Structure formats: structure tokens, C-alpha cells
């Protein structure tokens, strides 16, 4: 089952601009995670935000979580060509189960 | 270096043949996972194991089988019953608690 839905499906911006991706989900969660995938590679973990947190930062990344709206956003500031990748949100619904449900992803292209 | 190793990187299956994908981790993680990714899509869970000698079906287990005889290893067999096996297969592992999943670099399976 695909719980997360990401928006937009594809995003193309100029280098230096900010990129915002959104994720909506359907059921209560324990935590929500964001991953990046370069073409033909495995996923790399970016940020984990727990259900009792509202915002988290890591370098140029900022993640927000609104549990009342069942949504999250990932902001990448001052984008670089190396940020070109697909970005996925994943929800962990039950504490301790460690069973993630992934969204369909946003394909981000940074143009030089 | 700690990580997850998947092999082979590319695999071809003939009609009626079973093939086995290897996944090995040296992160001392208890939980391991197998996902299937189709082009332009998110990840779907095939099987997961939270402890040696135990595993559970994910959302799309039909036509697949797994074993977990050692903590480090979680091989996936794609059987001849899986009629549409062409996909990118990803293995992941994680420790206990709210830990992110670590991914291998995947195996791309195609039909001859």
C-alpha cells in the first residue's frame, strides 16, 4: 500500500533557487522520513522527524510536519546541480515495527 | 567500511527459472527488508525480517521467497511464479528504535 503521496511528481529549477516538495499521508504515524535516490542507486537517508516534532533542519534541508493535516514538506535551499535526484517520503506508522511505507517520489532537476 | 552489499548488480532470468538475489550487511542490524521499485515509482515492500529465523510478508510477497539463517544475510529468491519480475530490487537494514534504513545499491533484474 502506498500511504504517501508526493507533490509535485517532477520539479525543475535553476541552480541557486530553493526547492520545496510536499508529502501527504493517510494514517497516524510514529515518524516520517525523507530519502534521496540518485539514478540507478540505492536510497540515502536525509532526515527523520517524529510525530511530536514540527520542524527539523540539517544543513540546507528543512523538514516540516503537520500531523493535523497529515502532511510534510522538504525544503532544499540554495540548490546545487548535485541535488538532482528523486526524493521520497516514507512513513513509519507503528512504533517499533520499523516498517516504512514509501511515497511515489518527486523527481528534482537542478539546471545549471 | 560498514554497509550493505547487493549482488549481482544486473541479473537476467529465463522463462521458468528461479533466481536468487544476495544481500549482506555488516552493520550489525537486526532488521532487513526487500523492496521492489518499478520505473518512476516508489518502493513496495516484498518481505522483511526483524530477527534471525523469522520473516514476514510485505505488500507484494507473491512469487518471492526469502530466508534469514544468519543475521548478516537476507537472500531473496524470485520464483517462476512471479510473472512480471522485471524491476529494480533494493535491500535495506536498520537497527532497533527510530532508526533510518540503510540501503544497498540494488539489483536490476530483467527477462531474457
Report on the architecture of this protein.
The complex is a heterodimer of chains A (112) and B (112). Chain A has 112 residues and is an all-beta fold. Chain A contains no helices and eleven strands. Chain A has strands spanning 5-7, 10-14, 19-24, 31-37, 43-50, 55-58, 61-66, 71-76, 85-92, 100-102, 106-111. The radius of gyration of chain A is 13 Å and the shape is globular. Chain B is mainly β and 112 residues long. Helices cover 0% and strands 50% of the residues of chain B. In chain B, strands 2, 4, 5, 6, 9, 10 and 11 form a seven-stranded mixed beta sheet that branches. A four-stranded antiparallel beta sheet of chain B has the order 1-3-8-7, with no helix packed on it. Chain B starts with a strand and ends with a strand. At the A-B interface, strand 5, strand 9 and strand 10 of A face strand 5, strand 9 and strand 10 of B.
Topology at a glance:
The complex is a heterodimer of chains A (112) and B (112).
Chain A: E1 5-7, E2 10-14, E3 19-24, E4 31-37, E5 43-50, E6 55-58, E7 61-66, E8 71-76, E9 85-92, E10 100-102, E11 106-111
Parallel strand pairs in A: 2-11
Antiparallel strand pairs in A: 1-3, 3-8, 4-5, 4-9, 6-7, 7-8, 9-10, 9-11
Chain B: E1 4-7, E2 10-13, E3 19-25, E4 31-37, E5 43-51, E6 54-57, E7 64-66, E8 76-78, E9 87-94, E10 102-103, E11 107-111
Parallel strand pairs in B: 2-11
Antiparallel strand pairs in B: 1-3, 3-8, 4-5, 4-9, 5-6, 7-8, 9-10, 9-11
Amino acid at each position: 500500500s502506498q500511504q504517501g503521496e508526493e507533490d509535485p511528481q517532477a520539479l525543475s529549477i535553476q541552480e541557486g533557487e530553493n526547492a520545496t516538495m510536499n508529502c501527504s499521508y493517510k494514517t497516524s504515524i510514529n515518524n516520517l522520513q525523507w530519502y534521496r535516490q540518485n539514478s540507478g542507486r540505492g536510497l540515502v537517508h536525509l532526515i527523520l522527524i517524529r510525530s511530536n516534532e514540527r520542524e527539523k533542519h540539517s544543513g540546507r534541508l528543512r523538514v516540516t510536519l503537520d500531523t493535523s493535516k497529515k502532511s510534510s514538506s522538504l525544503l532544499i535551499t540554495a540548490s546545487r546541480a548535485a541535488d538532482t535526484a528523486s526524493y521520497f517520503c516514507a512513513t513509519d506508522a507503528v512504533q517499533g515495527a520499523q516498517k516504512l511505507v514509501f511515497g511515489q517520489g518527486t523527481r528534482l532537476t537542478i539546471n545549471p | 567500511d560498514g554497509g550493505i552489499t547487493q549482488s549481482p548488480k544486473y541479473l537476467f532470468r529465463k522463462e521458468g527459472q528461479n533466481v536468487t538475489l544476495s544481500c549482506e550487511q555488516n552493520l550489525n542490524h537486526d532488521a532487513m527488508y526487500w523492496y521492489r521499485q518499478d520505473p518512476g515509482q516508489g518502493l513496495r515492500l516484498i518481505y522483511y525480517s526483524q530477527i534471525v529465523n523469522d520473516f514476514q510478508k510485505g505488500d507484494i510477497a507473491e512469487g518471492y521467497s526469502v530466508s534469514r539463517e544468519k543475521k548478516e544475510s537476507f537472500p531473496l529468491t524470485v520464483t517462476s511464479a512471479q510473472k512480471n519480475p522485471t524491476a529494480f530490487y533494493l535491500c535495506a537494514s536498520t537497527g532497533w528504535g527510530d532508526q533510518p534504513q540503510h540501503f544497498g545499491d540494488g539489483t536490476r533484474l530483467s527477462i531474457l
